[in-house]
Design goal:
single chain, 286 residues, alpha+beta, 14-stranded antiparallel β-sheet, 14 strands, 53% strand, disordered N terminus
């Protein structure tokens, strides 16, 4: 074979090897990026876009439960900075009767990827005469969970923090959306799912504790077979109960009742209506 032809073939092979190496490196980088983005993902089996749940709220005042207002949960497909996402919201509104004793105005908002990775969280809370705002911004560059935390105190003071973690962290809305897709088959009473929870200032150990199956009558007249889950956060070395969720014992895991333990007392919410449910509701007790 002539020398010129040998050199020509060699150069073609060399160039192809360079291209192949570039393609392999690019593929590896894409896999690494996917891995970084997917590290906090979870398959959603419980809800779809357009789910809307409404509740009656009751407040305990001097050992008497009084109708105190309403709450609603809404989940819809949306976009967050150009990325397809679920937008979830929880809004509580006390009525005028409650306002005479205690003003309750909470609005929680979150964006999660379609694979349930937390992207953004905001909580605006008016409890009594105090109003605070918490925000958490998530990103996953470098294979870590990177967060920016923002808190506006009731005094108007603003605090910003940046943190990066090698594990996944969640806010109280994103962990609730994720927990709805947990499969409780085989769980014994007392089973715990542990995770770190973040807000506008802190990272705190938290857990969901399975408390067994109970019958719960909703404010829509139906009785449901429910799984009871206690959401707890660590405070002064001990786990403090924040909310008890009673969710339907079917693939939807719809919250039928919520028991909320507030700084100034306690409140309950009972399901009134539901729309846009993803799966058949098989937990109704006839």
């Amino acid at each position: 074979m002539p020398k010129e032809l040998v050199n020509w073939v060699f150069n073609i092979l060399l160039n192809n090897m360079k291209h192949l190496r570039t393609l392999l490196i690019s593929a590896m980088m894409m896999c690494a990026t996917s891995s970084a983005l997917a590290q906090c993902s979870y398959k959603n089996t419980a809800f779809g876009s357009g789910e809307f749940l409404t509740y009656n709220m009751y407040y305990n005042w001097k050992f008497v439960w009084v109708k105190a207002g309403t709450a609603s949960m809404y989940t819809v497909k949306s976009n967050y900075h150009g990325q397809p996402a679920y937008r979830g919201s929880l809004t509580t509104r006390g009525n005028n009767r409650l306002d005479d004793f205690f003003v309750l105005r909470d609005t929680l908002l979150c964006y999660n990827s379609l694979d349930l990775e937390p992207l953004y969280f905001r909580k605006g809370a008016r409890e009594g005469n105090r109003y605070t705002v918490d925000e958490v911004f998530y990103s996953y560059a470098g294979g870590n969970t990177n967060i920016r935390q923002h808190r506006i105190r009731h005094t108007g003071e603003q605090l910003w923090k940046k943190r990066s973690y090698s594990d996944c962290v969640y806010d109280m809305m994103s962990i609730f959306l994720r927990a709805r897709s947990f499969n409780p088959k085989g769980w014994a009473k007392g089973y715990m799912v542990k995770f770190p929870i973040v807000d506008g200032d802190d990272r705190t150990p938290a857990q969901l504790r399975y408390m067994g199956v109970q019958k719960v009558k909703a404010d829509n007249g139906h009785t449901y077979r429910c799984l009871k889950l206690a959401y707890m956060e660590q405070e002064d070395g001990k786990f403090k109960r924040i909310v008890d969720f009673y969710v339907t014992d079917d693939n939807n895991h719809i919250p039928v009742r919520l028991d909320m333990f507030l700084k100034f007392g306690s409140a309950k919410a009972f399901l009134v209506g539901m729309k846009g449910i993803r799966n058949p509701i098989t937990s109704i007790i006839k």
